[in-house]
Structures are given as structure tokens and as C-alpha cells.
Design a protein that fits this description.
Largest sheet: none
Number of strands: 0
Radius of gyration: 29 Å
Structural class: mainly alpha
Oligomer: single chain
Number of helices: 2
Shape: elongated
Strand content: under 5%
């Protein structure tokens, strides 16, 4: 089967959605159709299924690794190499704020 690339320029979203539907009727799968737009059209506006991305798991993994690295640097590292400065605890915990009532 020959590979074709077709460029269609549309001024409105309706003709673009109709062109995508016509490509589907010709037997072109959604995986082979790419839509580039300067405007944020949702896939639903163009009659396409929502595509899933892997950005969220990557961002959550990075956030978890950053949090664990921060805990390591602030709590575990001073336990491994204790340097007592001014008689204070190695890992300082902020004091609780007490409410003054008269």
C-alpha cells in the first residue's frame, strides 16, 4: 500500500471535522491521521477519540523522587554525618505555635 501525505488548510473547524470523517470512510485509521492546529481544538470537536498521554505518571514520578531526595538531604544525611552546632538537635523540628489567651 502506498504512503500518502495530505495537507488540508481549513478556516473553520467544521470542514476539518468533515475531512477527518471522509478519511475514516476511506479506511484510514485514526492512528495515521495527524491534526495540527494553531488553535486548541479538542479531539471531541473534530470527532476523534481522546488520546492518552504518559505525562502525568512521569510528572508524579519526578515529584515523588524530588520529595524523597529532599527528605534524604534534610533528615537522613545529618544522621549519617552528625555535626552538632551550638548544642542544637541534629534534625530541628519547628516549634508548635501556641495561642495566647488572656
Amino acid at each position: 500500500m502506498a504512503e500518502y501525505q495530505v495537507l488540508g488548510l481549513f478556516e473553520d473547524v467544521d470542514p476539518a471535522a468533515n475531512a477527518i470523517e471522509a478519511l475514516r470512510k476511506l479506511g484510514v485509521s485514526d492512528r495515521k491521521i495527524s491534526v495540527l492546529s494553531a488553535f486548541p481544538y479538542t479531539p471531541k470537536m473534530l470527532g476523534r477519540k481522546h488520546s492518552h498521554h504518559r505525562l502525568m505518571p512521569i510528572a508524579l514520578t519526578g515529584a515523588l523522587m524530588g520529595f524523597m531526595g529532599a527528605i534524604f538531604l534534610t533528615v537522613i544525611m545529618p544522621q549519617l554525618y552528625p555535626i552538632v552546632v551550638g548544642g542544637r538537635d541534629i534534625v530541628n523540628i519547628p516549634p508548635r505555635s501556641s495561642s495566647c489567651s488572656s
